[in-house]
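Researcher: Please predict.
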Amino acid sequence: MKHSVSERPRSKRDALILLAHGSRHNHVTHALRDITDAVARESRITGRFEVHMAFLDHAEPDLVQVATRLAERGYERAVVVPLLFTDAFHSRVDVPAQVKEAQDVSRLPMSIARGLGTGGDLAALLERRFRCLVSEESNSGSGNNADIEADSRAFAVFGGRSAGVPGTMSGPPTASAPVIRVLYSVGSSDPAANDAVSRLAASIGATSVAATGEHPRGVAAIDHIITHHGGDNYGGLDRGTRVPRPTVVEMGASSADPLVVVQPLFVAPGKLWAMVTKEIAHRQGISQAPETCRPHTRVTFRRGDTSEARGHFYAVPGQSGGIRFRCGSPLGVDLAPMIAERACSV
């Protein structure tokens, strides 16, 4: 059956390029391939775009290489979705400059869609991530938290695996254990970008911590939050306005040692996230954090998979008998609907 011009599939004419920051981490390319495949399966994308990936830095292919190949294959235009969360230097300067260079070299018309941002759709995804991680921790023992369990959703994250820790502190949190949420980002030299992440964290009852920038940062900043837990701002690191939410303390009173849930604001695995998980694991005497010992083969996940624990569990001694950590994983394929929405809005 022949298609009319208006009905003819556009996948051979229009391309969608996912433009990631890039990293020297061994698994970043595999992760981006999984994300690319997941976006290509989105109903809004299938039959409209063929999906490709490119990197701003540290990895290949770059945008010029991808645009040149697409032009040689006869594509008429490309939409670029920057996989960036904030409107910092990369978004304002690097992305437009690289798109212009790619257009000049390839002669392929290119449009820039808005990035991932820090809006409501991302906040909803992070909320589900935090709740799911806490629910897993609760369900790892005999007790359940019905409120959390009822609102949790099972979904896959890149590289999630269980890491039970032996010893007296490796059991599930008791019903009286408070939960401290930490949103872990790369950080920026742009105060406005850091403020945006802080507001995002505050909107879901979390505290933002950056791997770079002002002190305290990284694990030292997480320690600072734990030391001051119980107050509204968990140490006052947030620059945004915290919205009071019952999920800040999700499992009861604050008298017991807290469960610290750390969710990375990362698209894919990166060196900075690997460093913090390794440091947390090192405190417990684990030789390698799960983030640093991935299999060499490509690992694929589908949203909705009900895999085993999707975070990493560590029990850290030294404060009131032990602080439990649950570390999430990069957002990965769960970003696919957001990316599809950005692409189709251009």
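Model: Residues 120-139 form the longest helix (20 residues).
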